[in-house]
Structures are given as structure tokens and as C-alpha cells.
């Protein structure tokens, strides 16, 4: 079964699934169209190819906004069947090509077997071209590569000539924020800067990977910023006394009702670490050693 193909505007479409997949139709040769991200796995790739074939299109190029498995997991099967060229940002390239790095850096060593999962580790695929920010012409289709750092260090968005921005995981719908409480971030200051900049970009449509396409994203962007600011305030409050990272993680899990399993635990540890480094850098927290533990305390 294929995906539902949704027309956004002009030659810009997306496939509606767990993570939206962008499509930019090449009007000169529809079988050289561009896909923005490829879903989680081989099944996602097969469904993508089926839907595009049913609608008179094929894949000439793949653009990965970032290296998370639900955005590049379909690369392998699509590339093997179509010979399409893969583009990715420079930081994300390393993990797309060597996906074992993802669970490795989450765990900081060879990971627990529970982290060896397709949800963290896609099939590795060679990236043919490194994306640079700014205008890019791919087989006659002009796009704009927009830096959207924060969710990952090198994530980008892709803007089409139809003034549609495929925004990756730079922001999440209000429903997702309410359901999951605390999304994944690697850079807090970077995320806030990205969210603020998105308010002023002037596109007609903003298509996040997780959530509905928006014409007026301001309220949703503010909701994402509020989640980040709330977490900063909460960590500052609980660090009125020195706490180690495990204690802070436990408090965050309770406050945001984060479900408990090994994968989610290490994603939460990573996100909390991002807050701690940001708040230490900004002078809100300082580090101390107590009882043979590294702890964080409000300045």
C-alpha cells in the first residue's frame, strides 16, 4: 500500500505518514523529481516509490534534512532501485553513512543491545553531495537550503520555488508537544534561534515532518519556544541544590510524563545534557564535584 499524496502548491507535494516526505516535481522530467527525506525503513522506501509511480513520477535525487533514521531509513532501497543521487548536510553525512554512530553517541560507548534498533540506526548509504546553505539547482529544479540547527547540529530545511518550506524536525505540532511533553533537541540556544528565525521567513506553507502543514506557524513556533523556556526554568529551580545528571533526568521524566524504556531514556539523557550545557554556557548553572559525582547547581 502506498502513501497518501498531498498537493501543497504548484509542483510541491508531500507523502503523509509518520514522518512527512516532501516531493518536488521536476516538470521537465517527472522521473527526476526530488524527495525530501525517505521515511524509516525499506518499507517506507517501497511505499514512496509505489506512490510516485502511480502518480507519474520517479526519484532523481534524495535530500536528507538530517540523519535520524525516520528521515533517511528509505535511502538504501530507493537508491538501489533508482540510482538516485543523495544530498545531505555535512554534519549529518557522517551518521547517514555510518549509522552505528547514532546509538554510539547516545550511549557514549558501544551501546546496549536495546539501542541497536531501526528506530535509531538506519541502513548506511553513501552521500553523494554535501549540501551548502543557499540556492541549489538539481536537474533543473531550483531549491533553497535553509539552516535549521538545533534538533540536530546540522539539520536543514528545503524551500521550493512555490514558497513551501519542508522544515524537518525544527518544530513540532501542538498535539505532539502535548502528547510527548519534551521533544528531542541537541542544541537549546540553536533551537530557539531557529524557531525565532522561522517566524520571519515569509513562506506560504511550512511543512514539519511531524504535524500539519501550516500557513501561519507563529502560534506553533511560540508553543515550541515555551516548551524550551519552561524546561530551562524548571531545571534552574530544581538545581537550587546541586544535582547530578541522573537526578535531573529523573525529575524531567516525572515532570513531562516521559514513557520509560531504554531508547527513550537515552534520548531524554541526551536532551537533558543539551539543556545542561546550554545553561552552563549561559551562566545559569555551574558544575561542582560532590560525593564523587559531577553535579549542577544554580549560580
CATH class value of the largest domain? Alpha Beta
User: C-alpha Rg, in Å?
Assistant: 20 Å
Largest beta sheet: strand ordering: 1-2-3-4-5-6-7
CATH architecture of the largest domain: 4-Layer Sandwich
The assembly state of the depicted protein chains is single chain
From N to C, what is the helix and strand string?
Answer: EEEEHEHHEHHEEEEEHHEHEHHEE
* End-to-end distance: 56 Å
- Mean pLDDT over the full residue set: 97
Which bin fits the share of residues in helices? 25-40%
Query: CATH H level of the largest domain: which superfamily?
Result: Ribonuclease Z/Hydroxyacylglutathione hydrolase-like
How many individual helices? 10
Tell me the strand percentage band: 15-25%
In this structure, how is the largest beta sheet organized? 7 strands, mixed
Structural class: alpha/beta
How many E-type strands? Answer: 15
Can you walk me through this structure?
This protein has 299 residues and is an alpha/beta fold. It folds into 2 domains: 167 residues, Ribonuclease Z/Hydroxyacylglutathione hydrolase-like (Metallo-beta-lactamase, Chain A, 4-Layer Sandwich), CATH 3.60.15.10; 70 residues, Winged helix-like DNA-binding domain superfamily/Winged helix DNA-binding domain (Arc Repressor Mutant, subunit A). Helix content is 37%, strand content 22%. It is built from 10 helices and 15 strands. The strands form 3 sheets. Strands 1-2-3-4-5-6-7 form a 7-stranded mixed beta sheet. A hairpin with an 8-residue loop joins strand 9 and strand 10. Helix 1 crosses helix 3 and helix 7 packs antiparallel against helix 8. The longest helix has 21 residues. The radius of gyration is 20 Å and the shape is globular. 43% of the residues are buried. The model has no long low-confidence stretch (mean pLDDT 97).
